[in-house]
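Reminder to self: keep the SMILES exactly as supplied, no canonicalising. Ligand is zinc ion.
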Amino acid sequence: MINSIDYNIMPDFEQRSKIEEKLIAQFPFIKKETVGKSLCQKPIYAYSIGENKNKTLYVGAFHGMEWLTSIVLLKFLEQCCKSIDENKNILCFRIHDFLKINGLTIIPCINPDGVEIQINGSKSAGKYKRIIDNITPDTSHWQANARGIDLNHNFNAGWKQLKSLEIKNRILYPSQTRYGGRAPESEPESSSLINYCKTKGFSKALAFHSQGREIYWDFGNSTPKESLLIANILADSAKYKVSSPEGLAVGGGFKDRFISLFKKPAFTVEIGLGKNPLPLSDFDEEYKRLMPLLCLGIIL
Ligand SMILES: [Zn+2]
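Structure tokens returned for the bound complex:
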């Protein structure tokens, strides 16, 4: 008898690793790869199932407060594995069949240090503790990595324009949010994600954040023409809205880099509604709402 996995936990590194180990033990066909290491030397893992070509990429927890996205992605990975094992649909979707055509890779947490700092405080960041303590004594709203760089402002897409906006807004130094660093992809988390994508040829990518129940789909002239249609279908399925970013939300993000580098569709999905960090008690309802979107993300 297989023990069912409990997702009703705060997914710091230790707890999340336990879930990931259980998944690998239950479903040995999951392919585990190392994407890279965080500043605090925490491994960043990717888990893949299904066909090797045409893979969709789901990435969670770019920001410290947004760990709910990690457990959403891990639970969905479990459901997909069960769908393969038992030859069963998820909702009305024959995911076990679709995965033979379009595979899925999930990276549950691209910012393991940021999540750890938000949940367990600066003491969890080793030699970076002093930098964090200088920025804030209270890490309950920490979004950045361990040296105060916001990963989703650090990607090499419209980075210079974003930097001048940061300067205009007096965001000049490492901070718990919105400081993009001194050079694009200066951080091991952002650079290793891009290097990993370069070797994989993903057909599209969904970056999961919280909150707002909305989907961002465009980045300038490189945006593929099918992106808006896909965004509309995904948004309808979860009763989310389709949005275009403004101001400091333009450029520097993983979605933007993926679109401009690969000329393929990429989306930012802002899960949940309320104030970050969304509470664990939101998990069941939001997961239910996201299930069709997560299925369609593979199929489309
Ligand atoms: Zn975010």
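Points to follow up:
The pocket of zinc ion is lined by residues 62-63, 66, 152, 209 (CB under 6 Å).
The domain at 22-299 is CATH 3.40.630.10 (Aminopeptidase).
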